[in-house]
Amino acid sequence: MISLVSRSLQLLLLLLIACTATAEHTSNWAVLVSTSRFWFNYRHLANVLSLYRTVKRLGIPDSQIILMLPDDMACNPRNAFPGTVYSNADRAVDLYGDNIEVDYRGYEVTVENFIRLLTDRLDEDVPRSKRLGSDAGSNVLVYMTGHGGDQFLKFQDAEEIGAWDLADAFGQMWEKKRYHELLFMIDTCQANTMYTHFYSPNIVATGSSELDQSSYSHHADNDVGVAVIDRWTYYVLEFLETQVTSANSKLNLGDLFDSYDESKIHSQPGVRWDLFPGGEPEGRLRTVVDFFGNVQNVEVENANATEPGSLKEDLAEIAKLVEKWQRRDEEYSAILNNSTQQTENRPSSSVHLNQKKTVGPTRMTDESSWGKRLVGLSVIGACTAIWVAGSYLGR
Amino acid sequence: MTNKKGDQESPKALANSTSQSATQRVPPPETSEAIHTRFRVIAAFWAVIIFLGFPIWWKTTSIYRAHLPIQEMVDWDDGKICRPVFPLEIHVATPQMQISESQHLLRTTQHTLDDLNEFAAHHLRLKPVNDTSASTPDEEHNVDAIGNAVEEGAEIALTVRVLSQEGLVSPRSELHADTTQLDVFYPPNHVPLPSSSNPPLSAFIAKELQGLYSEEKATIGHILSGETAGFDSESISRRLRRSMKYADTYHLSFSLFTPGPAPSSWDIENAVKEYLSPLLHAFAPISNFTIDTQVQLYATFSPMAPPPVYDEGEAAWTLRKEDLSAFINAAEWPLNPSIGSGPTLNFILYVPAPSQSPLVVKENRASSWIVPQWGGVYLLNPTLLTDQSGQSNPPYLTHESLRPAFMTFSHQLLTLLGTPTTPASLPLRLQTLTRVRAATLLLSASSTMGSLARLTESLPSIPIPATVASSVSTTLSHLSATCSYLRDGRFAAALASARVAETEAERSFFEKSMVGQVYFPDEHKVAVYLPLLGPIGVPLLVSLLKEVKRMIARRKANKAPAASN
Among A64, A72, A70, which residue's Cα sits nearest to residue A31? Predict the structure, then answer.
């Protein structure tokens, strides 16, 4: 009896520890990548857009979703339903909708840009919407789809990313504390080979097919004329759409991976747990919304609480600060007025907020164009002289 | 070896020619000139390959890797080089005591403080101040104290004035909320006697000081070791979790959202200037801020969000606490300006439709909440205008009506930037934040150095340009400067230095040209080189082998006659 009690206490303690561990991540990011262009790869873009719709539905804001689409199926001239992308022949949900934010499009989707995105080795002038701003507290979902082979994934018919490079990119992300936990999903032929080289911890990886297996499309829409979604993605989405109905869902990764049905998917999906601390038993406990949803533990401020750091206390302190500044401003302006009469238009506050200024056109360079022309002329002259001299001497 | 017809000919060829001369026509023997020419041609080819081809290939395929002080970087990461310490200087003014009395008080208080302190990295040093000018509240100085990064000597963290007051039974203290000053009042008969080793007044002062800095100590301890001891660890880790990651520049975005056509304008410029700029100025030594504002009319809730419910008892529309995370319509509200380089803090002022006013949070009638690491929301319920068509929101929000909202935003800003909750004096809290941030940046820049060092070692195919090496040396020098500033108690200077170190460390790690997508498996390399090396390499190698063979044979032939003679 006593042992039972102590056992259950231990269990409770374990659960508690597990809870505090899961509560650690503070933000969610999603990187959704399709890697193939052209009309007959319609399904790859539909895969990614379906996932995009799902993570957005579960609460990840656009600013934390990086969407890479190498082609624009909605505006393809062969699209019988212009402006739309569907992932199902019933055409119930237009994935393109009126509110999607594509961060990398067309020929911007390259291996280099993808690796730069993950490792944040980007130019300073790249806007924040195109950056992965994750930190040590972020759970990151990486979904890739396209045409692949043994340990590579083809990008844009022109280049490929190797499993080693992907592993190194994740390794660097871990080194720089750019993720807390990472879920890697890939739907391509021989997909499971893509995560074999991963070595950084806290990664759960899953793919659609084993080595030497193809990953098949699910069904075609006869009016669109091409296959509209891949099998593995279709069944993952089916799980996410029918089971994970709200951001508060308690379903975990174990449930998601258990839902794989090889007879339906027509290939053997794989899961890699060994990088995750605690391995499979621990990893299975992570909820699906840990990766597909967004944490937002809002903190309501109680206007009546009086503990230190509460709203009321802070307000009093800030009010005092503001008062003091007003006093100081008055004194300052009084001094200004006394000493100099003509500097009345000087701002009375000593805090300089950025004033709006209209910016006129500026010259890009300030070197004289005539100097350049002179140099050019003399170069041409010298070349001509050499040519003339050469032809004269060579005769 | 009997035939001496030609010295130059190889013995094998000779043997062939003698044995087969009867059946086959022998090619004419090569002249020594032809052999010389062939030797020169082959030598020329190989010379080009060895002296020109090979260096060019080596040069063009090798990866430039600047030298980095790997060991030093790793040592910083391991914390072997710097143990950050935080000596706080506290001035004690005792205008109403004799010098000997005050010295005794100071000595005993310091003794008690040292006994109380169990966290060695953070300690308080008391210093006597004799002139009365320092004891008067010098506001200008106090406000600027944390802004003055180049100030010489240790900063004064706190000024304690010890004053006697009639009619007191036991000592009491009073902390000024707008300055860094603590007044301690004591009954006149509590003046410590030189004989007593532990007078109650010293014990009281020591306890007060200890209490003032307990949260800071716990926070710094948490940052340095990753675990908290003593103080409420849950609240500290919660605070660290919800506060933004440090950035040099934060972007503040103030948005007015309303589901209807009014209010369509607000006195935002004056509101920001009046209510927010004092705080931003106080934050200047820690971070920079840029501000933008927007007004969005007809902003609806997301279709997924549960709508507010009318509560009869409260006579108000209410939102449930668990639904608040769905309040912001991230899909449709334009909240992601993505301007500039810093992270954005969003502050949303939501004015509900007249039909849903007033709108409050159900559980505690609060009208504001914080979204960790993202921003804050304030529900403003203005007094409605009534005319013949019904009730409507006022078209313009004056800056008086914005006052509660902006005061709340200021509070939210303090929270989001990780300001500690105690002591109850804003300048002191900002000083604490300075120290906490300096410690955080010191650690984060050090760990970036360690990451870069490990990355350099583990990925030999990644190029390391010279700019990285210079950034690394800047980082390391600023890190050691930070460390020594901390030791001297010059925290503003330490923070300034740590900011440079952090920026440079980030720059070196995120150097654009360090992209490792050059990994090729060995079979790829063979596939690249084989078409080139096959057709060219085989004739070259074969000819070299033949020539070497010929030379060896000739040397043997030369030796053999010498031996036989």
Answer: A64
